[in-house]
Amino acid sequence: MPVSLTRTVGVRATHRYFKPQWSAEENRRRFGWTADEPGHAHDYRVSVTVTGPLDPETDMVVDLSLFDRILADEVTTPFDGKYLNLDLPEFAAGGALPTCEALARLLFGRIAARLPPGVTLARVRVAEDASLHADCTGET
């Protein structure tokens, strides 16, 4: 019987919604204050849910030390303290906007590629605050 496990990590990062091909006025019209320089920070909460059968020897879906290393490598280290528009190539000028939806999609791919056989990534949830989050389940 499959079981799920969720680990939540926190990162503080800055972002700005701004498309360089648009005028400052158009950015402001479309994104409001979130287009303003220099950007704004969030204390993101990233919750990662994996599923799989329990290991008969450990009663775990995934070894927690491995899971924590993956989250440190793919979430905490690359994102914490960063200005997403400048420090991550995926969100550099002309790239994707660093929305919580885009972050969830990006993290899903990065984390899924690192999981051991038999462990499935079910969901990545990126919450900007208590009132806004995005989920990526990898489904199209």
How would you characterize the overall build of this protein?
The longest helix is centred in the middle third of the chain and has 16 residues, at 64-79. With 140 residues, the protein is α+β, with helices and mostly antiparallel strands. 29% of the residues lie in helices and 31% in strands. Strands 1-2-3-4 form a 4-stranded antiparallel beta sheet, with helices on one face. The protein is elongated, with a radius of gyration of 17 Å. The mean pLDDT is 95. The chain is built from 4 helices and 4 strands; from the N terminus they run βαβαααββ. A hairpin with a 2-residue loop joins strand 3 and strand 4. The chain has helices at residues 24-31, 64-79, 84-87, 100-112, and strands at residues 2-15, 40-53, 120-129, 132-136.
